[in-house]
Amino acid sequence: MVTATTSLQVEARPVPTDPAARRAWEVAATVTDPEIPVLTIEDLGVLRSVELDDAGRVRVQLTPTYSGCPALDAMRDDVLLALTHAGYADVRVDVVLSPAWTTDWMSEAGKQKLRRYGIQAPSGRAAARGTGPVRVQLAVKCPRCDSLNTRELARFGSTSCKALYECRDCLEPFDYFKVL
Amino acid sequence: MNDPKPGPPGGRAVPPEEAHGDVSVDRLALAEELTGVGASGAGATASPEVAEYALRLGDDSLLLAQQLGMWIARAPELEEDVALGNIALDLIGHARSLLHYAGTATSRSEDDLAYWRDEPEWRNAWLFEQPNGDFAHTIARQFAASVYLFELYGALTESTDPTLAAIAAKAVKEVDYHRDHATQWVLRLAGGTEESRRRMSVALDDTWPYVDELFDDDELVVRLSDAGTAVLPSSLRGPFQEIISAVLVEAELELPTGRTAFTASGGGREGRHTEHLGPLLAEMQVLARAHPGASW
Lengths: 180, 296
Prior knowledge:
A: alpha/beta, four-stranded mixed sheet, 24% helix, B: disordered N terminus
């Protein structure tokens, strides 16, 4: 359940106002990211719109986190499947690129779930990123022991959206969801 | 793909626990995605000239991705396998969007364009078909390419063509990471051992002849940039040079100048290519051509 309070939250989760379309949105919103199964596509801000016409046709729009994200195809199939199971007979899922996805759209609830799962959520706002050759990297907190004594091992990690870190206090490696 | 047969509520009898199993909608028709124009729905169709421009950009990215992929399991360290693989994946994403859009002008799919064109039909600049060489050569090529692409996509976000602007807005954020990565390796190799420094220096010398072509203006791109659609390549030279110079000053390396500076003739935008493109295409296209019409 989303309570839209800020314009950013509205932009991140454009839930339809029409009750029937909202029900379809809530079905689509249960689909999770196959690579990060604790996050739904709604948590991520990947679910961009759900429209329902008078004939009962559902049209869903998703946006990729990264241009080459292979999880998108699976999410697309899963949205189609979820809505079909819920009884919607005519479902179409499209991919849109604009507006470009940003980590700023990740929900607070999603960030908490991510941390419990062992992945540190993006810290800081993408909008605040400098464009110069040198960028200041905010400290990344260890999701296990909350230490700030961490180090980036590799900027590119297990998926497009993550970097690999290690904690120098609890000595565990962990993934960090990169700001984009 | 997106026309499930009307049926009773519950649709296909797939138990929820097998939701990831038997899915019959795997074949994604890209013609129905990447509309790039927000909520308008129908994908935009490119004019022949815009398609040609999109083809140039798409070809650059696809060939670079193909070559970076060769490093997987061969890079100097595991993290670099992962990094170059990830960067290649981003570039394939950009290429798919661009080639899909280019194909709308002639009713060809992104796969048709990637797998069924021969050398004279490719529109990439020569830089992107230069071979991987040693790791330093790959980094030198990546350094030039990512700084150029970052400037290009940054400017292209202002395009009056909504599809190109959307692709650029998405790509620029990813290319920013690529640029950062290449820059760090230039500095690391330049400041590493005598051998790594020597190799980085040789690689820059070998790569730079191919940089000029990126900034060539031809009639097509002048027309398109006058219309606000494309970015005038020559306008990117200044910002490109500024970043490259700043990094090289820090690395204490110099680019060849004067009598030792050699500039390749280029011609990739017209379909003239170096001897490196053929083998690259052969490997990339062999599977698709062995199984015409197959989908995966």
